[in-house]
Amino acid sequence: MRKKFIFIVLFFCIMSLTTSCSSSEEEISPDKEEQIKPEFKIQLKDVATVVIVGSQGNRSEITDPDDIRFFINLINSDYQAESPGAVNDVGYREVIISMKDGKEINLIFGGNGHYFVVSETNFAYFLKPNQSTNDLRDLVERTEKENK
After folding, report:
1. Using one digit for the tens of pLDDT, what is the confidence trace for 71-109?
2. Are 99 and 118 in contact (CB under 8 A)?
């Protein structure tokens, strides 16, 4: 009987140690999980219009199909995504992309055209340095000049 009693006590001690050790694994809180950064892609065939809104509220539509293609290719391929709230200096220009299905996508460019924030998700996308931002600024200036 004594052996049986010792066996039962040892059994419960081992079980309690096993369960306490297995539950002590570090759990990752939702704050520590890496936030998924969505890829930003727009299909050129789905774009109806692209309108640039200047700092004074003036609107300039990009009408040349080559310029629209250039702009869409630029924002689709030349970026590095950052989490929401990563940037707060926006206001260079706003671009409204109207899709053929009626949906509108608002991009707010900041840093003199170095990055844009997608209004819907608040994610920031940084363009490649130098050439991309220079080409974007050239397109914006040319479009605004043509629409005056």
Report:
1. 999 888 756 666 666 666 657 899 999 999 999 999 998
2. no
